[in-house]
């Protein structure tokens, strides 16, 4: 690996998607893999003979295959799927069981958010939190987001109390849809500087996609403190590139 290449964790948190439909589970892996290509994601859908239902054996095998040492997050579509996943956990050894979390969250949104969190190297609590944020979005509960800098902080070079702001216009035809949003969030998380996008946490996939930013939308980037100017510039450059879709 060259000095210019980013360091990628050798092991990432794994994911298992439990659905009553094998088609849904496999399709969800295909969808999430567009944004998280190196995360271990296993479908556990349908019965053992691929009818509608759930399979203890598929869930158990999925957890075993997804676990590489950093833990596994399991997402389920309906209540009985959760019961099947819980039963599978009962048969794991104590050490493995301690690294497996079943998250009650909207399956598609939770899976995508968790996949991106895992892809950028998040630990088990971070990936779990990302998945749960999908549930918060639907319940109306407040979700975690970066603090919004004070409006009178000004702009300019970054410093301890200085806010850097920059406005960019989206140019790619389909706006900030799933794939570019994941690319944007991945970069934002890697910068190590809290940045907001129109007041939302730049490192939260669901928060960014929830803005519904389409072509021509004005995107306001804001950050403060050490490294703020470089972080804002990096994200602005990515937005201005059109993500290769312009």
Summarize the structure.
This protein has nine helices and eight strands. The protein has helices spanning 22-33, 56-66, 79-90, 94-97, 107-119, 124-139, 178-191, 205-209, 228-241; strands spanning 14-19, 41-45, 72-76, 100-103, 163-169, 195-197, 200-201, 218-224. A hairpin with a 2-residue loop joins strand 6 (195-197) and strand 7.
Plain-language structure description:
Residues 12-139 form the PTS EIIA type-4 domain. Keywords: Transferase. It catalyses: dihydroxyacetone + phosphoenolpyruvate = dihydroxyacetone phosphate + pyruvate. Homodimer. The dihydroxyacetone kinase complex is composed of a homodimer of DhaM, a homodimer of DhaK and the subunit DhaL. Helix content is 41%, strand content 16%. By secondary structure, it is of the alpha/beta class. It has two domains: 14-139, Rossmann fold (3-Layer(aba) Sandwich), CATH 3.40.50; 151-244, HPr-like (Histidine-containing Protein, Chain: A), CATH 3.30.1340. It has a four-stranded parallel β-sheet with strand order 2-1-3-4, with helices on both faces. It has a four-stranded antiparallel β-sheet with strand order 5-8-6-7, with helices on one face. The chain is elongated and about 55 Å long. Mean pLDDT is 86; it is low at 1-9 and 140-159.
